[in-house]
């Protein structure tokens, strides 16, 4: 497919090395007073997270890693579906215009105040479609802002509850997105975000908290089954579109200000391949 030509991979080892240098510098300096949690402070370095938040997961692989991450990220605060509106206005704020949010599929910058259910407004897209496992909008997976994003009302309706896969016809109002009868392909810049949100949900929800055990699979047309496909395509998307500043900031804001849990695949994209 010639339209997808962003197959370069960010040199992960170089990124990790940069974090290590930063962490080493910080460790050698006298302890600074902790920044207030609400301040837009620099993100916690990855090596610090590995020594603290992810400590029980480090060194594990496969199902043991998934189990350790499930225990870690299940410790969280929860918000109501009505509180999701305001949370998204913070997590998805346009870096170039603090009055706006960025719509995940359309890529458009829209006034925060233009949220609602009418044509032309933005609403709350469940990237893990809420019918897949039938969790609705009760406080839980349906209000977990790690997979909720602002989207144009009409485009959100076009995505509906389709599984994710490559292919289809262009989506009106959302350049670079494609859809057919059984699947949806987001624009290139959203592909990795979508993959990491789906895989977060799979690790967070394991059927032990009154909600379904969510898992990715290789199918489309999953209907109301607690599954989203196609896993092989999501893994490819995660590789092609590594976490950028917007996605990492979003993870930090959710951790610092709302749910106090993290999406491990934004911090450690290589854990996708370790688990799946
Ligand atoms: Ca399809
Ligand atoms: Ca992205
Ligand atoms: Ca699961």
TrEMBL record:
Keyword Manganese part of the UniProt annotation: no
Origin superkingdom: Bacteria
Protein name (Swiss-Prot/TrEMBL): Endonuclease I family protein
Segments of this protein annotated with the region Disordered: 157-187
Signal peptide region: 1-28
Keywords per UniProt: Endonuclease, Hydrolase, Nuclease, Signal
Entry annotated with the keyword Membrane: no
Pfam families: Endonuclease_1 (PF04231)
Membrane-crossing residue ranges in chain numbering: none
Species this chain originates from: Streptomyces yanii
GO molecular function, one term: endonuclease activity
InterPro entries for the chain: Endonuclease-I, His-Me_finger_sf, TAT_signal
């Amino acid at each position: 497919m010639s339209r997808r030509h962003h197959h370069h991979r960010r040199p992960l080892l170089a990124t990790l090395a940069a974090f290590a240098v930063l962490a080493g510098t910080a460790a050698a300096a006298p302890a600074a007073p902790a920044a207030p949690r609400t301040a837009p402070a620099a993100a916690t370095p990855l090596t610090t997270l590995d020594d603290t938040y992810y400590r029980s997961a480090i060194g594990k692989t496969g199902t043991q890693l998934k189990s350790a991450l499930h225990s870690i990220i299940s410790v969280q605060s929860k918000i109501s579906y009505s509180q999701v509106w305001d949370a998204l206005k913070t997590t998805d704020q346009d870096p170039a215009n603090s009055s706006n949010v960025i719509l995940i599929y359309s890529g458009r910058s829209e006034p925060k105040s233009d949220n609602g259910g009418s044509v032309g407004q933005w609403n709350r897209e469940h990237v893990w479609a809420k019918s897949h496992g039938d969790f609705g909008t009760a406080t839980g997976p349906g209000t977990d802002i790690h997979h909720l994003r602002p989207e144009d009302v009409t485009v959100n309706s076009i995505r509906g509850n389709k599984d994710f896969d490559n292919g289809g016809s262009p989506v009106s109002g959302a350049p670079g997105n494609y859809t057919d009868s059984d699947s949806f392909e987001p624009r290139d810049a959203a592909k990795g975000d979508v993959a990491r949100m789906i895989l977060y949900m799979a690790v967070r929800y394991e059927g032990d908290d009154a909600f379904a055990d969510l898992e990715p699979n290789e199918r489309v047309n999953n209907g109301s089954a607690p599954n989203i496909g196609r896993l092989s395509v999501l893994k490819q998307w995660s590789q092609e579109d590594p976490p950028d500043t917007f996605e990492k900031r979003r993870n930090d804001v959710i951790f610092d200000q709302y749910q106090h849990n993290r999406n491990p695949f934004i911090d450690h994209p290589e854990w996708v391949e370790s688990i799946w």
